Amino acid sequence: MELGFHPRVEAVSRESTCQAQTTGDIPPYRLGVNSGAAATAGMSELQRARDREKATYRWIRLLGAAAIAFVVTTSLQGRPSPGGAGQALAVTVALTAFCVATIAAMWLTLARPAVRMAVLLLAVAAAAALVGLQGNDAAFLGVFPAVCMAALVLPVHLSVAVAGAAIVAVSAHRQQKGARASRASS
């Protein structure tokens, strides 16, 4: 038995079947193309991607809530603790700004990138201010939800700017605090 192509394939020249055939050997392709199966597969993939994105947002929101709880708890125990005068007032303002900005960053889903970036930078600045004002450095954890959210929702160049601002702000406040501690000990 000899193996070969289908008789029509072997008998036809290498010309395209898209052209109208006048010889009648191969009728032109007249059937419609059903893209329903491809569209359904594409939609299910899109739905899976949306579900993954929603799950990621839920985890980031959980991280934000945990960071707020941790920073508030440690700030209340730190020195100076939040209060109404002097450095205690500054701690109160920074703590309030941190909480409000972090919550806003987690729930502002339709805001423009510039607005989201401003809110995230406020959260970073408030966390860095708490690092500089209090001696326990616990507010360092407060920059993580802002940096994570920036990576998820902002264009790359803006999220890099938020991450860079977080590094610079926290480092500057830690160095400032270290300089004050060394002056106090001498």
Walk me through the structure:
- It is built from 6 helices and no strands.
- The protein is mostly helical and 186 residues long.
- The chain has one domain (36-185).
- It starts with 6 loop residues before the first helix and ends with a helix.
User: Can you summarize the main beta sheet?
Assistant: none
User: How many β strands by DSSP?
Assistant: 0
- How many helices? The count is 6
Structural domains: how many: 1
| Alpha-beta classification | mainly alpha
Average the pLDDT over all residues and give the rounded result: 78
Shape call: elongated
Strand content: under 5%
Alpha carbon gyration radius: 31 Å
**H-E order:** HHHHHH
Low-confidence stretches: none
Proportion of helical residues: over 70%
Report how far the terminal alpha carbons are from each other.
Answer: 101 Å
Name the descriptors.
mainly alpha, 70% helix, 186 residues
Secondary structure layout:
Layout: H1 7-11, H2 36-77, H3 86-107, H4 113-133, H5 143-153, H6 156-185
Q: What would you say about this model in short?
A:
This protein has about 190 residues and is mainly α. It has helices spanning about 5-10, 35-75, 85-105, 115-135, 145-155, 155-185.
